[in-house]
Amino acid sequence: MSEKTTVLVVDDEERFASNMVTLLEGHDLIAKAVYSGEEALDLLQREDFDVILLDVKMPGLSGIGTLEKMNLMGVDSKVVVLTGHASVDDAVTLLDLGALDYLLKPSKTHRVLEMIRLAKEARDLQKQAGV
Amino acid sequence: MNPLRALAFAPPPKASLPRLGVAALASGLALAAAGLDGPLALASALGAAGAAFAVALPRADAGAAHGREARDMDDLLIHSQKMSVLGELSSGIAHEINTPLGIIGQETELLQLIASRSEFSSLDSSAELLERIDQISIQVERCGEITHQLLDFARKTKAVLQTVNLGELVEDMTRLVEREAGYQNITITRRYRDGKRTISTDPSLLRQVVLNLLQNAVQAVERDGMVTVGTRISGQQAEIEVTDTGCGIQPENLQRIFDPFFTTKPPGQGTGLGLSICMKIMHRLGGHIRVRSSPGQGAVFTLLLPVAGPESANTHDNPPSAYQGDRHE
């Protein structure tokens, strides 16, 4: 479990997503950005990530739609929702779909990093348990 | 900021709301009357909309033919319509602002990283540079707290009734809070009685209140403390009870905790709006909130709701001016 944590940032706001990649790489993580749910699903067919930072409101597939499709594909990455759109109803739906937690923008990077760390731990435990 | 707190009723620093639209929304005053000399364009936008809407509505107190009761009802109607329009508007604005705010926050953090590099730290002005970048970061956080608070007010104000499973609704919110509580080793105990029974209520509004009470309870207890959440239905009344083992509420504060802007938290850590909003929502749902507490003995907040929905409750017995909780010491 010593390898670097891999993170996929899914956000239609390109500057936000690319900045997040820069910030995460600055903290020794491996990060990639995609700018839509569709792109995320496409990439996830070829590549595995420990953690996915998922926006909710995106043109095309929303965060909820993306997570539903990821579940159908059997993607076992841990999903942390990162959105400017606070809604308890969305939060409940996303957590029901298996998202690990829900962060609101603007969110400090240390907060995002802490959530990624917890998500990675959860994924490692899951792998160890062979689930 | 604690994200769940933001989902409930995010507490922006009191000082960060220079008689802003938020204050007017919370206290139910017309925005136009709140003084819109605050620095934020957001406040101006909201204020303009509020003023325009106030003009468009007939003034309830214009005719002497109205009795006092009719006037009160008219005021209430106008108020609720205003809240509804302003709610939608502020929701849209807050949602849209959070993303650019997020980017400004990121750019600031990246600037901090660049400025802390050695070639900059040797400059005479590097301390000032860093201090100024820190200020941007602080102010971004402050803006975020404001937009999160606006989102709270943006919740629709008209209750849309649905048949709701009482236990499920409470459990959904408990699960949300449990994640956060777990990090501090706080235990949440469930005592759901009649949890499978359904009630007629607005689930979104009720969720807000339950989440807020649970958040307060988790905040009130120290590390390793305990929060208990229970449900039951007796006769035509549903009860949701949140108990904590925290420091309790001083008797002199007990009467004031539902007052808008009343807070015992240090400046910048709470607006004192959460419980006042909870009480308003509960009135809208035809119910109310009861609180019992003694200093050092924790607190018990009980939500009381009519099983058959707000229409079945005699709302005249609960005039909105009586936003005080029942005291049971």
Description:
The complex is a heterodimer of chains A (131) and B (329). With 131 residues, chain A is an alpha/beta fold. In chain A, 47% of the residues lie in helices and 18% in strands. Chain A has 5 helices and 5 strands, in the order βαβαβαβαβα. In chain A, strands 2-1-3-4-5 form a 5-stranded parallel beta sheet, with helices on both faces. In chain A, helix 2 (37-44) packs parallel to helix 3 (63-73). The mean pLDDT of chain A is 91. Chain B has 329 residues and is an alpha/beta fold. Chain B has a 6-stranded mixed beta sheet. A two-stranded antiparallel ribbon of chain B has the order 1-3. Chain B folds into 2 domains: 3-154, no CATH class; 162-327, 2-Layer Sandwich (Heat Shock Protein 90). Chain B starts with a helix and ends with a strand. Chain B is built from 10 helices and 8 strands. Chain A binds chain B through residues 13, 15-16, 19-20, 22-23, 26, 57, 83-89, 91-92, 95, 101-109, and chain B through 1, 3-4, 6-7, 95-99, 101-107, 109-110, 113, 140-141, 143-144, 148, 151, 172-173, 175-176, 179, 204, 207-208, 211.
